[in-house]
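I have a small job for you when you get a moment. Would you make up a two-line entry for one protein for me to read? No commentary is needed, just the two lines. Write everything out right here, beneath this request.
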Amino acid sequence: MRKTVFVILLVFVIWPLTVSNIQAAQSFKDVGSTHRALVSINYLAEGGIVSGNGNGHFLPDKTVTRAEAATMIGRAVGLDGTKRNTRFHDVGSQSFASGYIQSAVDAKIISGYVDGSFKPNNPVTRGEMALLISRAFHYNATNTASAAEALMKRGIAQGITQTDFGYTYNIKRADFAVFLARSINYKLRISPQVSFNIETEVTASSLNVRTGPSTAYGAVGSIPKGTKVQGSYIVGEWMYIRSSKLEGFVNSSYLSGTDTPKPGENNGQSVASQMIVIDPGHGGHDPGASGFGLKEKDVVLDTSLKVKALLDKTPFKLTMTRETDVYPTLAKRVEIAKAAKGNIFVSIHANKFNGAANGTETYYYSAATNPYVADSKLLATKIQNRLLAAWNLRNRDVKKGNFHVIRENNMPAVLVEMGFIDNEKDVEKLKSPEWRQKAAEAIFYGILDFYKEKGFNVTSYYSIK
């Protein structure tokens, strides 16, 4: 029996972690009951992530320094904060932030300057804040612009105006607390929705579910061994999960198949060594199938480029057989894949028959002399399952096929037929940019599912959208 992995969008709350629950946790003399950052500050204070100045004040309007930013983020993701010597001549071993600074540098969350200094008292700008959070929480941004986009897309941050993120503005402690708390707990975000794409199982005899990513946060209940749960995202060594009865953070060490990635790392050289080849079918003078005013070559190119955008946010290497409206021959597509030393090959297509046929199917090549049959079938199955969950079309199954691009390749290879372009029901999905994005995400998750089953650590990439 085929097991379908559903992408579950959270539209209701199982355990009521509400604003009022968090608001009652802590109080500072200078953070009143109507302060815009009250809930976020109290939430972080409950977990020991932020603290006051020793006399009950939080100083919400004070500018965040680099030392403070490293400390708060370090505490949030569970870095080692033990005071120690650092590589910087201006950060002594007895500095309150020395341990977190060195740990954050080692994790590639923050860096020093070419003169060997860290400048711990320098202010942090909003752009720098976005980049630090992106690195710590695996949002895979490469610069301040993409980091800001990642935070705004997730409902973590907003611009100072509709057209200006305010990259160069110094950030206050209150605002930093808001953005950090939203990164940790999605229920505090502007649009509190996340996807639960990680299928896992409890391995401890009884696993506590907490309101935050440390034992400092209260437990809302426990889950017994063997319970299947769905995970959404990782904060340090903790995963946000949901079961049939509970929702919250659990220590990922007690979940099956979820080796926790270190913040800022690429989650293993083995992942970075993998070359994925994406092949948008047809192109140029070959339109492929057509129906209802659509051409297959356009549909599959758009979907493939959306897959590329997702893969570009991971350490995987990627080769496309085409990125524009050109036609590489079937032999050329295989040649491109082989020259790139691809590890897997995914060809993306749309189907056509008589207007009545409909559904999704995925092909792999099977022959006694082919050493990649098992892996090709596994990859096809993972992608097929994800597409069925995303599009909910008729399941036409995983099938053996004799197509040139999968037959002649020297790597695990599949050919995906997303739907029938001449079918009235299927074409509603194929013609929609939003549904093509869902298909791209399904193919991406299917690829992750394949690598996860092969023993690769890809857990953090399921949060990518």
